[in-house]
């Protein structure tokens, strides 16, 4: 009886061991198959080189912001104003012997038969108010240069305008007819408004 029990025990151990080893073999077989599949997936596919007739579909032309062309009339007005550069300041003057800020614009616009009032404060009532970001060549810039006052007493003509840089021609009491930048500290703080008359 003891022999039969011992024999059964040995048989059970052997049969469990063989099924265990079969299970391990199966797992090894499955892991080997999985590894082979992963290797195949990870292989790099050869890249096809484009032929000489193919061209890339990229646009290599640079793009620039659209700039509005200045009308011939405005160009002539600016040219007329610039012809007075260096002329000394003279209150009420409108000639090369001397001129003031409004006299400069009155004369320059008059060269193209555009009638403007004679004073800067009266000019500030003409045309349409525009935002300084929309200023273009030929627009008028108005300033209040007296301390603690916002009353307009100075005017300039925009000669060049691009983002962050606005140039204007005017007649200053100290240097006469000259070109300045709106971004200069003095003019930046004295600026009141911009207007378009053409």
Automatic annotation (TrEMBL):
<dbReference type="GO" id="GO:0008234">
    <property type="term" value="F:cysteine-type peptidase activity"/>
</dbReference>
<feature type="compositionally biased region" description="Low complexity">
    <location>
        <begin position="56"/>
        <end position="66"/>
    </location>
</feature>
<keyword id="KW-0788">Thiol protease</keyword>
<comment type="similarity">
    <text>Belongs to the peptidase C40 family.</text>
</comment>
<protein>
    <submittedName>
        <fullName>Cell wall-associated hydrolase, NlpC family</fullName>
    </submittedName>
</protein>
<keyword id="KW-0378">Hydrolase</keyword>
<dbReference type="InterPro" id="IPR038765">
    <property type="entry name" value="Papain-like_cys_pep_sf"/>
</dbReference>
<dbReference type="GO" id="GO:0006508">
    <property type="term" value="P:proteolysis"/>
</dbReference>
<feature type="compositionally biased region" description="Basic residues">
    <location>
        <begin position="41"/>
        <end position="50"/>
    </location>
</feature>
<keyword id="KW-0645">Protease</keyword>
<feature type="domain" description="NlpC/P60">
    <location>
        <begin position="71"/>
        <end position="198"/>
    </location>
</feature>
<dbReference type="InterPro" id="IPR052062">
    <property type="entry name" value="Murein_DD/LD_carboxypeptidase"/>
</dbReference>
<feature type="region of interest" description="Disordered">
    <location>
        <begin position="24"/>
        <end position="67"/>
    </location>
</feature>
<keyword id="KW-0732">Signal</keyword>
<dbReference type="Pfam" id="PF00877">
    <property type="entry name" value="NLPC_P60"/>
</dbReference>
<dbReference type="InterPro" id="IPR000064">
    <property type="entry name" value="NLP_P60_dom"/>
</dbReference>
């Amino acid at each position: 009886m003891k022999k039969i029990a011992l024999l059964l025990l040995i048989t059970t151990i052997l049969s469990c061991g063989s099924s265990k080893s079969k299970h391990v073999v199966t797992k090894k077989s499955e892991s080997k198959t999985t590894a082979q599949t992963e290797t195949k997936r990870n292989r790099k596919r050869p890249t096809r080189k484009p032929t000489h007739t193919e061209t890339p579909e990229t646009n290599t032309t640079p793009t620039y912001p659209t700039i509005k062309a200045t009308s011939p009339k405005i160009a002539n007005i600016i040219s007329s104003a610039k012809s007075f550069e260096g002329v000394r300041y003279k209150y009420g003057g409108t000639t090369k012997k001397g001129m003031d800020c409004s006299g400069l614009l009155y004369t320059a616009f008059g060269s193209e038969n555009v009638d403007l009032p004679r004073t800067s404060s009266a000019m500030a009532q003409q045309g349409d108010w525009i935002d300084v970001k929309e200023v273009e060549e030929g627009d008028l810039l108005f300033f209040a240069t007296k301390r603690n006052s916002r009353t307009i007493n100075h005017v300039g003509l925009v000669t060049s305008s691009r983002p962050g840089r606005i140039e204007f021609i005017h007649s200053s009491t100290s240097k006469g007819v000259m070109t300045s930048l709106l971004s200069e500290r003095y003019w930046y703080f004295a600026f009141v408004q911009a207007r378009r008359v053409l």
